[in-house]
UniProtKB/TrEMBL annotation:
Pfam families named among the record's database cross-references: ABC_tran (PF00005), TOBE_2 (PF08402)
Entry keywords, A to Z: ATP-binding, Cell membrane, Membrane, Nucleotide-binding, Transport
Domain ABC transporter: 4-241
Family indicated by similarity: Belongs to the ABC transporter superfamily.
Name this protein carries in UniProt: Carbohydrate ABC transporter ATP-binding protein, CUT1 family
Taxonomic superkingdom: Bacteria
InterPro entries noted in UniProt: AAA+_ATPase, ABC_transporter-like_ATP-bd, ABC_transpr_FbpC, ABC_transpr_MalK/UgpC-like, Mo/tungstate-bd_C_term_dom, NA-bd_OB-fold, P-loop_NTPase, Transp-assoc_OB_typ2
Length: 363
């Protein structure tokens, strides 16, 4: 296993890139610790596959370096990087049995038969496929095939990193949650460095200790699932993570106070000095409540999502969602919104521009 360092990486698919827009990866600087579980999360086209292909060696970056445990591997071909990859679609040999498929990466490297047998049995047990070890892969269901594909990625214990590229794409929705949890468990047991690429926030947040969120070829935030939820560093993260995502309200500043629609809104703490640009207030629907006083608006939609309702309130042209427990108001009602100050943040040109208030030290 290895620590992976990406240093000043940039990549353009054009021979003579002119400006930042010509770069599929704009600038990536990352340290992935040995044994960590990481997710690379972002919408289609944000550069996830480009980054993955650079790490695996299928693509040479236009600029920058990739280091495994401090050693520069930027120019090494894929087969010399000791990487295991699990793709969207199963990569297994149909004519072989499950056991032979799982053993293949080890046999290929001349591992002795006793070690192969032991390791295959361990992986099969972890993936709960021991009972089908002697079945031909051809007859397996798509999700069992993908499980075997994962097993082949995990069977070697001498790889630098295991990379999963949207591995649950072919899995039936009702089995997805099971495999998601299983993968997390597997990471804890095998403790390889793992990178999981996905556009699905649930998959990323379930699997990873640290999630790297990408947008337009840039890393916008790296954090634990809690950090990304609690304090998005960028409005994109707030919007992309959470269901529904963070409310983003147009704002202005007057006398050091943030205003929405002419009304002062209390923030988590002070605004960064010199803040300018396009200003927005961000607050998650979970921290917006309905009360007798507060910002008045009209209920424009009520969605019942089981244990709570999501009430959408329109104020001027802005729609704000609130998560409401108990009986929700009806569409057309006038309501008053209260925003939890400690969870209300200011953003300038998308980036966070308020600081949490200092906690008072215990007397
Ligand atoms: N071979 C290529 N030639 C030119 N442009 C490419 C090539 N591959 C990707 N791109 C462009 O680079 C950008 C990043 O693409 P990339 O495939 O890395 O994103 P992604 O996040 O993996 O998306 P997806 O989830 O759809 O695969 C996109 O604008 C894409 O159009």
């Amino acid at each position: 296993m290895a620590k992976i360092t990406l240093k000043n990486l940039r990549h353009s698919y054009y021979p003579n890139p002119k400006g930042p827009d010509d770069f599929a990866l704009k600038e990536v600087d990352l340290d992935w610790q040995d044994g960590g579980a990481y997710a690379l999360l972002g919408p289609s086209g944000c550069g996830k596959s480009t980054l993955l292909n650079i790490i695996s060696g299928l693509l040479e970056p236009s600029e920058g370096q990739i280091l495994f445990d401090g050693q520069d591997v930027t120019k090494l071909p894929p087969d010399q990087r000791d990487i295991a990859q699990v793709f969207q679609f199963p990569v297994i040999y149909d004519t072989m049995t499950v056991r032979q498929n799982l053993a293949f990466p080890l046999k290929n490297r001349g591992v002795d038969p006793a070690t192969i047998e032991k390791r295959v049995a361990e992986i099969a047990e972890m993936l709960e496929v021991t009972d089908i070890l002697d079945r031909k892969a051809a007859g397996l269901s798509p999700d069992n095939k993908q499980k075997i594909s994962m097993g082949r990625g995990l069977v070697r214990d001498d790889v630098n990193v295991v990379m999963f590229d949207e591995p649950l794409t072919v899995i039936d929705p009702h089995l997805k949650w099971k495999l998601r949890t299983k993968l997390k468990e597997l990471h804890q047991r095998v403790s390889h460095t793992m990178i999981y690429v996905t556009h699905d926030q649930t998959e990323a947040l379930t699997f990873a200790d640290q999630v790297v969120v990408m947008q337009d070829g840039e890393v916008v935030q790296i954090g634990t699932p809690e950090e990304l939820f609690e304090r998005p560093a960028h409005t994109f993260v707030g919007h992309f993570i959470g269901s529904p995502g963070m409310n983003v309200l147009p704002a202005t500043i007057k006398d050091g106070q943030a205003l929405f629609n002419g009304t002062a809104v209390a923030l988590e703490g002070p605004i960064h000095p010199g803040t300018k640009g396009t200003l927005e207030i961000g607050i998650r629907p979970e921290f917006v409540s309905l009360g007798d006083t507060g910002i008045a608006g009209t209920v424009s939609r009520v969605s019942d999502v089981g244990r709570h309702a999501v009430v959408q309130v329109t104020i001027a042209d802005t729609k704000i969602s609130a998560v409401v427990n108990g009986t929700p108001p009806a569409t057309g009602d006038t309501v008053h919104l209260q925003l939890t100050a400690a969870q209300t943040r200011l953003y300038a040109d998308g980036w966070i521009a308020s600081t949490p208030a200092q906690k008072e030290s215990a007397a």
